[in-house]
Structure formats: C-alpha cells, structure tokens
Design goal:
The protein is of the alpha/beta class. It is about 35% helix and about 15% strand. Bound molecules: flavin mononucleotide.
C-alpha cells in the first residue's frame, strides 16, 4: 500500500515532522582547525542553511537564544526575531521559530514581535517559550526560582494568547479596490489582570494568517511538562540516547495533554538529534573520531559548567571519574533542570565515567542523542523510534552537524531516504506552519 506521498504506508498517519536548529558549530575546537563557520553574525551562513533546509522540505527552522554571554569566552550572536525576519523575506514555506524568555520581557512586546514576524512571513512564525536559566544581572532583578519561573510563564503565555486573539478573524477586510477596512467592533480589549501581569489590550497587530503563531516549549521538568502539555503546539525535548525512556517521555507529554482535554495529535514532540552520517558505518565513525581529535578539552570543561548547575569540574583530572556524590539531585537544580537530569543519568548508569567522556558526549550532541552510521542505518534508527511511538519527528541540531557533509548529509541523503520509506513528505502541503505541522 502506498501513502499520499507515494511511499510505503507507515503505521503512523502524518509522517515525520522535522525541524532544524540553526547556528554555528558550537564545538570547542582546537585553534587553527578548519571547519564549518562558527561566526554567529554571518547572515549569509544563516540564509544558506535556511534555504537548504527549505529545499529539503524541513518543516521549520528554530533559533535558540540566551540573554547573556560568557565573560571568559564571550561570543557575539544575533537576536532571534530580528534574524528570523531577515530569513522570512528569503524563504517562502519553512517555519520560523525563535526562543524568547518569559522571565525578561513583557508579554505585550513579545506578542507584537512574533505576530509581526507572522505577518511578514505569511503565517510561518512560532515562539519557543523559555523561562531562562541565566541573564538576570542584565535586567536588574533576580532570576526567580525554577518553579516560580514556570508560574510566571503560565500567566505570560495566557496574556500573549489573549492578545493574539484580540482581533477577530474578520476584523480587517479589503474592498474591491484594495482599500483596507477595520471593524472596530471586532477588535477587543483583553482586560487581563493576574498576579504578575496587567494588560488592557487590544494588540496593535491584527489576527495571524495562521490564526495564531505556533507556540513551542522546551523544558521537560515536571513544571515544564505541565505547561507544555496545556498550551504548546510543539515540544522540543532533549533527544535521549535510549529508546525506552524516549517512549516514556513521549507518552507522558501526550497523556498530560489528554488530561487537559486536548487531542494528543495536536501537540508534536520533537526530540533533538545530532546524527553523524557517513556513506558507510565505518566512514561515519571515522568522521566522529576526527571530531573528537579536534576537541579542545580545556574549553570543553568550561562549557560543561553551564550545563551542570554550577558544579565546577576545574579541580578534576580529565581522566578521573566524575564524583557522583558531588552532583546535586536533579530536583534541586534551579537552572536547566531536565537537561541536567539527562547528564546526571548518564553518569549514574555508567554510560559516561570520566570528565573526558562527558566532554566528548557534550561536544557530540550537546546532550542530545547522536546516532552514528550510514544513511540507511540512521534512517532505520529514526524510523524505529517513530514507529515505536517515541516521537512525532526530530529537531536536527545544525551546530553539531559538523561531520564532513554536515547539513547536506541530512537534506540530500537522509531526507530522500526517509521519503523513499514513506515517512516524510515530498513537499509542503500548505502555506502556513500551523497547517504544515497539522496542529
Ligand atoms: C531543544 C531545546 C532548546 C532549548 N532552547 C533554549 C533556548 O533557546 N533558550 C533557553 O533559555 N533555554 C532553552 N532550552 C532550555 C529550556 O527551555 C528550559 O529552560 C530548560 O530545559 C529548563 O527547563 P526544565 O527545568 O523544565 O527542564 C532549550 C531546551 C531544549 C531541549
């Protein structure tokens, strides 16, 4: 039997949803080594990646963000909505999702920025809600504790959603000569008042071409899961190395969504994946070894600290065992709780033993799953996870796609293989991101 894309019918209806996290390589490389650009100001590189992803029919690009730069290793970068606006003008079908913090911005500003991007792109914008785990010193107020950040985020998202709905769908019409008419009776105040926010509305941008911009969420702690399950269209998770826990995480999000009265299909779970792809398994392993040879372990040690809830690895020899007893309990971490949990679990289960192992692991996938193998082998592994109910799709991590062909291995080799298998679309079916995601 064939499906609507001409491939073998998969057990699962819609096919994979694929995203691509844009960025530089993120690798802590030895100085003087060539490789993909690390220049996060290089608009040409972003344009090329976005257009290549669009040629590969990837549903959406995604830009991460932080409101702080390291003092010991400062790195310049671009603000996501500004960058996505430029990319909107140079692409036509791919989604444009950017991270914005609920801890250090105002809902009215955010609602306006993202909805403007949505109009500029013809209905392709999305907001990845993050609560931030750093940056407070730039805003003159303390970083709220983990669970408090989510309480604010929940109210914040409520305000944004209400503002996005403050214009009825037909509030703006055009007559035959193209003259715009706005029906003021269809533009409403929201009169929002809650513990943290007081917002009158209406927004000064009209209704979205896709009804509302896409809302993504990227935290997997208990609080993150509750919020995501209640309101998000897309969940970005840390791709786990093992399949069974991935299935559990997937089921948990879907069950929580059902408990909020939502259809499980209306929320797409997209774990991060950083595949190392070769023409053969042997070649893929060779690429991976080359990358390990290039790691600057002292730089890597520094970048680990940010993921480890303040645990300082400075005094520990690279080949010493990681002292599990010195690591905090996951539930006590105030920063990126679920990502820390992924790393702690690797140490607990003995998959990662030494500081060197941990840096290799971190450099390979930034904590996300990094399968290594031929195109067919990687396609088998992605298909297996999809068909076993571990995921609705994947979010490829461009900054780790530094292996030989990099993004081209995904767009020109892996994706055609997934299409041949009938588990990925051959073209965008709709104009807007919301329709293309099926949410
Ligand atoms: C794929 C992915 C992308 C993320 N992108 C960002 C980001 O751009 N900015 C940010 O501050 N946090 C980002 N995060 C972190 C989460 O939003 C969240 O703050 C963190 O995981 C802590 O949430 P938790 O405690 O619920 O796990 C990302 C997480 C994942 C898995």
């Amino acid at each position: 039997m064939t499906n609507k894309w001409g491939g073998r019918t998969s057990e699962r209806g819609q096919g994979l949803v694929l995203g691509l996290l844009l960025g530089g390589t993120g690798q802590t490389k030895k100085p003087g080594r060539d490789g993909p650009t690390d220049n996060l100001l290089d608009i040409t590189a972003y344009i090329e990646q976005a257009q290549q992803a669009e040629r590969g029919k990837i549903h959406t690009i995604f830009l991460a963000d932080a409101l702080v730069t390291s003092e010991t290793a400062p790195k310049p970068g671009l603000e996501p909505v500004t960058l996505l606006s430029a990319l909107a003008a140079l692409t036509s079908r791919i989604g444009l999702i950017g991270s914005i913090s609920t801890s250090f911005t105002e809902p009215y500003n955010l609602a306006r920025q993202v909805l403007s991007l949505d109009h500029i792109s013809g209905g392709r914008a999305g907001w990845n809600l993050v609560t931030s785990s750093a940056g407070e010193k730039n805003f003159g107020k303390p970083l709220p504790a983990h669970d408090d950040r989510y309480a604010v985020a929940e109210e914040f998202a409520g305000v944004v959603q209400a503002l996005w709905e403050s214009w009825e769908r037909d509030a703006v019409t055009y007559d035959d000569s193209g003259r715009q008419r706005v029906d003021a009776k269809k533009v409403h105040r929201i009169d929002w008042s809650s513990q943290h926010f007081s917002v009158r509305g209406p927004l000064n941008v009209s209704r979205s071409p896709q009804d509302k911009p896409i809302l993504a969420q990227a935290g997997s702690s208990n609080e993150g899961r509750q919020l995501g399950a209640r309101i998000a269209d897309v969940i970005f998770t840390t791709g786990l190395t093992e399949t069974e826990p991935s299935i559990e995480l997937y089921k948990d999000f879907k069950q929580r969504a059902s408990a909020f009265g939502r259809s499980p299909d209306s929320i797409k779970i997209l774990p991060g994946v950083a595949p190392v792809i070769g023409s053969t398994d042997e070649e893929a392993h060779r690429f991976w070894r080359d990358v390990i040879d290039d790691i600057d372990f002292e730089e890597g040690r520094k970048s680990l600290a940010s993921q480890f809830g303040g645990v300082d690895f400075e005094g520990i020899d690279l080949d010493d065992e990681i002292p599990l007893q010195d690591l905090p309990q996951t539930a006590d971490v105030q920063g990126r709780r679920s990502r820390f949990g992924v790393f702690r679990n690797l140490v607990e289960t003995g998959k990662v033993r030494t500081v060197r192992d941990l840096i290799i692991y971190h450099s390979s996938g930034a904590g996300h799953w990094f399968p290594i193998g031929s195109v067919e082998n990687i396609a088998d592994q992605l298909q297996d996870r999809y068909e076993r109910g571990a995921t609705d799709g994947f979010n490829f991590l461009a900054f780790t796609l530094k292996y030989e062909l990099g993004l081209t291995a995904v767009t020109d080799h892996l994706i055609p293989e997934l299409q041949r298998r009938g588990i990925f679309h051959h073209d965008y079916q709709h104009e807007t991101l919301r329709q293309n995601l099926g949410v």
